[in-house]
Design brief:
Helix content is 35%, strand content 26%. The protein is α/β, with parallel strands linked by helices. It has two domains: 63 residues, membrane protein fhac (Ubiquitin-like (UB roll), Roll), CATH 3.10.20; 133 residues, Rossmann fold. A nine-stranded mixed sheet has the order 6-5-4-7-8-9-10-11-12, covered by helices on one side. The protein has a three-stranded mixed sheet with strand order 1-3-2, covered by helices on one side. Helix 4 packs across helix 5.
Length: 250
């Protein structure tokens, strides 16, 4: 009868070690799969949604307009493309810059720096703040010391629209130099598509400067032309300096 072979415990443990390693690896793979599944459920599934949009720096903009432009409410926060949101917010025209980041679990934060008002644009009774690059920023009731341009054509505008910045700069230039060149200190100027920038005088004349070409020459000859117009009979109502060196009045 053969003798029973006695196997030391250490040998048995060595034989079982590969099985244990395989089991450990399988358990690790199972945990990884469960974690991946949970992450996929969070990222792609329904539980996580943007439920609030936090806007800061909005002094002129309507906050609801920012939220609408961002278009992230209800979106999965992991899928929010912050750069695209920033571009949509900048498309409103009023922000000079916009920074967007996601705050888990359910918030998107939009930080805005708005453009600075530089001019006033008036259509009928409504005054609008306008930026240095011509963007309509917001309606206002304050006639500050900014340059005021009244649209004689009464074309409606809304926040985010642009007006020709050359008109605004021309108006600012004339309001600066006319007190010394023509003795005029207008509180506002008019603008029309046919006459360009028009400066009203206290005695009822209107001085049309046209566009911004040769503007210094036009401003320099304004005083002499105004004097001639005031002495003319019948007295004209319009002095046209639209073409430098060829003024006329009617």
């Amino acid at each position: 009868m053969p003798r029973a072979q006695i196997v030391p415990d250490a040998v048995i443990d060595e034989r079982r070690a590969p099985d244990r390693r395989i089991a450990g690896r399988l358990f690790g793979l199972l945990l990884a799969a469960l974690a991946a599944g949970a992450l996929g459920y969070l990222v792609l599934g329904a539980p996580l949604r943007v439920r609030q949009v936090i806007v800061t720096g909005d002094l002129l903009l309507d906050r609801a307009a920012v939220v609408q432009a961002a278009d992230v409410l209800g979106a999965n926060p992991f899928r929010v493309q912050t750069s695209a949101v920033e571009q949509r917010v900048l498309g409103l025209g009023v922000p000079a810059s916009a920074r967007v980041h996601v705050e888990l679990p359910d918030a998107v934060v939009i930080q805005i720096a708005e453009k600075t008002p530089a001019y006033l644009w008036k259509v009928d009774p409504t005054l609008y703040l306008v930026s240095a690059d011509g963007v309509i920023l917001a309606p206002t009731t304050s006639e500050s010391r900014r340059v005021i341009v009244v649209d004689a054509d009464r074309r409606p505008v809304r926040v985010g629209d642009r007006v020709d910045v050359r008109i605004l700069r021309e108006a600012a230039y004339l309001m600066t130099v006319l007190p010394s060149t023509a003795g005029l200190s207008p509180r506002y100027v008019l603008y029309s598509r046919t006459l360009g920038v028009v400066v009203p005088t206290p005695d009822g004349l209107q001085v049309a400067f046209g566009d911004d070409r040769q503007l210094a020459e036009k401003a320099a000859e304004a005083a002499a032309v105004l004097q001639a117009a005031r002495q003319h009979q019948p007295r004209p109502t319009l002095v046209d300096l639209g073409v430098a060196d060829h003024p006329y009045f009617r």
